[in-house]
Write a structure and sequence with these properties.
- It is a single chain.
- The chain is α+β, with helices and mostly antiparallel strands and 811 residues long.
- The protein folds into 3 domains: 5-301, Glycoside hydrolase, family 65, N-terminal domain (Beta-galactosidase, Chain A, domain 5, Distorted Sandwich); 352-644, Glycosyltransferase (Alpha/alpha barrel), CATH 1.50.10; 729-809, Sandwich (Maltose phosphorylase, domain 3).
- 31% of the residues lie in helices and 27% in strands.
- It has 20 helices and 34 strands.
- Helix 6 runs antiparallel to helix 8, helix 8 crosses helix 10 and helix 18 (663-672) packs antiparallel against helix 19.
- The structure holds beta-D-glucopyranose (BGC).
- Residues 340, 348, 353-355, 491, 493, 614-615, 661, 663, 707 line the site of beta-D-glucopyranose (BGC).
Length: 811
């Protein structure tokens, strides 16, 4: 088994959606699902093309309410390619005897291959091979090549190659009551005998999109003229290309497509750009070569020398592949965030949540410029976040839980429970902790990259404004002599209100409160870190007074954190007083209870009544903060938390979590890694299986779970290999599962390439030689070494005392 090849055999209509999502090809600018080129949205297939950040808003009346939703738009389908023999019907997989069908995704080169052999009703046998790419270094270009062999017949083969603008957003069943016609004003043109173009506009955001397609036909390897005709409608344009084919002869049609929008930079207008690019583009083979070269460079940068089992390697390669197809070097120049479901489907309407918290750690140490670009997506929306805070009666910046085009809150007000058919009020927008994730990401990007300019120009302002918002969200509770936060929702979305209370939100979500203490102390730290001049400017511009800084300091010392018995952090005030759920009974009755919220609502019950969590909430604290950091934060708050209470907390919440989000397994693998290795590996396997085996039963077809995919890579890098950046130092704490074989990787730390090899509890670190390189400080266990350019250090934590044993020497 080659762990760089991933694929499917046969055709299974019921599984086609998952396969299409997993075979999506993309380059960070746009992505196209792995749908069969001859298909339309028909219940089994769902061709979808999505351009990063191309959103549009539409209004629908549901359950008597007018709701406006913003969605990532499904763009015209450039794949359209089908064929027919003589005057027979257009090819339809369901109408022929399929002798062979497989799809193979080459994760190394970024090429999807489909092989098909069939016998039609006239008993003619035909072989077809299709290859496609979405070009990694020419972000507007894609290619589809179809090679056909007439095995036992001769006649005329007619290919139909076109662009289909009759698409809507209807890929997610539970959104189908919502309006999905985003494209209007379709126009089509034939601009040259072999070049067509389709232009359309999004109805509300007025983004213009143009797709131009060029075909070339070959027989016996030679470019040939074809007998061609044009089918030109307003929203579809296609060339029919007829060629004579002899028995056992091979004919080939290549289609090169260029996609441009009015959001592009360095562009006059999309039609001209698409047509010019496609006219000048090289042929399929040459483009496939340059595309594979771009992938080779990316793989080099994200190299993981892994020798784990083939299955696990394949999953890791697949995850890395989809991460880099969603966020690639092409993203660096875009105004794009991290869409939770990739550019692979329409779940969550392409919105951006807190999921970048699971994506940035990998990018920070591999391609920091991408992490920076994603953070500037947030910075550009700072004015909108300030307005949201102001309109809600707060100060600073309140970032939206779901973000899209301009940073307005895009969370839905109503959502459908597909189990009960009920439309329900949705209060998940009260997840104010999104702001903390943004501040955390900005601070950690700065730590890993040493990018002082970023901190000065963007990062500090965001962190300060977010701290200011959280400070205004806190109330001083005199009776407790503590700061409290009321009426929010934590990462666990099952609890959005107290049973019987008419206003939404819960009080003192421990995750939000502890992280607010972290945020306030970080804001003070950031001010200290800035150069004098910039600090002065920001203090003036944001009108930060001493009293405000004093309040941040007090919050970081007097924030309230709820606990109940035996050192257990309460997920929120009153969590321990909620009823216990009979987990075994529910598992017996329903089997899969990941979406316990839907089950309970359909039973006329309410998840708010139970000590039952969708995903890690309290445990997020152990995920984001090291044990020392957490102990320090809680200690300063006056809540001593001895290390032995951590496993008790993990166990308590593990027993009460349904893992209704794929993020939950990432966090659980992490928090168990150092105490219960076996369970941690089970959760790790679960993360690897999330999309590969569609563990949420049907959600993968609606788009991949990008944070879980990126989270698995992060687990390897930061958790198992133990490579972390803290307090301006590189920390190594290897606990690498020996069953995975040694790991060798190359990271970028504070602008320098560094190679690290890890196995078990030992690590070797090597810096790159070079006159301009600065020494780096690296800590492992209780020992710290300073490494000059081209130096190597070996560490071992294997001794029972846990002390490091570094040896440093020049090469
Ligand atoms: C999770 C959120 C996540 C969102 C998008 C939800 O199911 O509960 O934490 O941000 O999916 O991935």
């Amino acid at each position: 088994m080659n762990p760089w090849l991933f694929g499917f055999r046969d055709f299974e209509p019921g599984d086609e959606g998952r396969r299409e999502a997993l075979c999506t090809l993309g380059n960070g600018y746009f992505a196209t699902r792995g749908a069969a080129p001859e298909s339309r949205a028909d219940g089994a297939h769902y061709p979808g093309t999505y351009v990063a950040s191309c959103y549009n808003r539409l209004t629908t009346t549901v359950a008597g309410h007018e709701v406006e939703n913003e969605s990532l738009v499904n763009m015209p389908n450039w794949l359209l390619l089908t064929f027919r023999i003589d005057d027979g019907p257009w090819f339809d997989l369901a109408q022929v005897e399929v002798l062979h069908h497989d799809q193979e995704l080459d994760l190394e080169r970024g090429i999807l291959v489909r092989r098909l052999r069939f016998r039609d009703r006239q008993a003619r046998t035909t072989r077809v091979v299709q290859r496609r790419f979405v070009h990694m270094s020419r972000p507007h270009l894609a290619g589809l090549e179809t090679t056909l062999v007439a095995e036992d017949w001769s006649g005329t083969i007619t290919f139909r190659s076109g662009i289909d603008g009759r698409v809507t957003n209807c890929g997610v069943a539970r959104y189908r009551d919502l309006e999905g016609h985003h494209l209007v004003d379709h126009q089509t043109f034939e601009v040259a005998p072999n070049i067509t173009v389709l232009h359309a506009r999004t109805s509300q955001s007025h983004i213009r999109v143009a797709e131009a397609a060029r075909f070339r036909a070959f027989a016996g390897g030679e470019l040939v003229d074809v007998d061609q005709s044009l089918d030109r409608q307003d929203d579809l344009i296609a060339h029919d290309l007829a060629l004579a084919v002899a028995q056992q002869a091979e004919v080939r049609v290549e289609k090169i497509v260029s996609l441009h929008t009015s959001l592009d930079r360095a562009s006059t207008e999309p039609v001209a750009e698409a047509v010019n690019e496609v006219r000048d583009a090289a042929g399929f083979d040459e483009l496939a070569r340059s595309h594979s070269l771009a992938w080779a460079r990316l793989h080099h940068r994200f190299h993981y020398g892994l020798s784990m089992s083939d299955g696990a390697q394949e999953a890791v390669h697949l995850h890395l592949f989809h991460l880099l197809q969603t966020i690639s070097p092409n993203t660096a120049d875009l105004d794009a965030g991290v869409p939770a479901r990739g550019l692979h489907g329409e779940a969550y309407r392409g919105h951006v949540f807190w999921d970048e918290l699971f994506v940035l750690p990998t990018l920070n140490l591999r391609m920091p410029q991408l992490a920076r670009a994603l953070l500037t997506y947030r910075y550009r929306r700072l004015p909108q976040a300030r307005k949201a805070a102001h309109d809600a009666g707060f100060s600073g910046a309140m970032f939206p839980w779901q973000s899209g085009s301009n940073g307005r809150e895009e969370s839905q007000h109503l959502h459908l429970n597909p189990r009960s058919g009920n439309w329900l009020p949705d209060h998940t927008h009260l997840q104010r902790h999104i702001g903390i994730a943004i501040a955390y990401n900005a601070w950690h990007y700065y730590q890993a990259s040493g990018d002082e300019e970023f901190l000065s120009d963007f990062g500090a302002e965001m962190i300060l404004e977010i701290a200011r918002f959280f400070s205004s969200l806190t109330h001083y509770d005199r009776s407790r002599d503590r700061y409290t936060i009321r009426g929010v929702v934590g990462p666990d979305e099952y609890h959005t209100a107290y049973p019987g209370r008419d206003r939404p939100g819960i009080d003192n979500n421990a995750y939000t409160n502890v992280m607010t203490a972290w945020l306030c102390r970080t804001a003070v730290h950031v001010l200290r870190e800035l150069p004098d001049q910039r600090r002065g400017e920001l203090i003036d511009d944001l009108e930060i007074r001493h009293a405000e800084i004093d309040r941040w300091k007090r919050i970081s010392q007097r924030m309230f954190v709820p606990f109940h018995g035996n050192g257990i952090i309460s997920q929120f005030d009153g969590y321990d007083r909620l009823a216990e759920l009979d987990w075994d009974a529910y598992r017996q009755r329903y089997g899969d209870i990941q979406r316990l919220d839907r089950i309970l609502e359909a039973e006329n019950d309410d998840p708010n009544r139970y000590q039952a969590s969708k995903q890690a909430d309290v445990l997020m604290l152990f995920y984001l903060l090291s044990a020392e950091e957490l102990e320090d934060i809680l200690g300063k708050l006056g809540y001593p938390m001895p290390p032995e209470t951590i496993p008790r907390n993990i166990e308590y919440y593990q027993q009460r979590t349904s893992h209704g989000s794929t993020l939950s397994a990432v966090v659980h693998a992490w928090v168990l890694a150092r105490s219960r290795r076996h369970q941690a590996m089970e959760f790790f396997d679960r993360v690897l299986a999330s999309d590969l085996h569609d563990t949420q039963h049907g959600t993968t077809s609606e788009g991949i779970h990008l944070a879980a995919m990126a989270g698995s890579i992060d687990l390897l890098q930061r958790c198992f290999a133990g490579i972390e950046v803290r307090d301006g130092e590189l920390h190594l704490n290897p606990l690498w599962p020996t069953e995975l074989g040694p790991l060798e990787l190359s990271i970028h730390y504070q602008g320098q390439p560094v190679t690290i090899k890890v196995t078990g509890r030992t690590a070797t670190i090597r810096t790159t030689p070079g006159k301009k390189r600065l020494p780096i400080t690296c800590t492992c266990g209780s020992r710290t070494v300073c490494l000059g350019p081209g130096e190597t250090a070996r560490f071992s934590l294997e001794r029972p005392t846990g002390g490091a044993d570094p040896t440093t020497f020049a090469p």
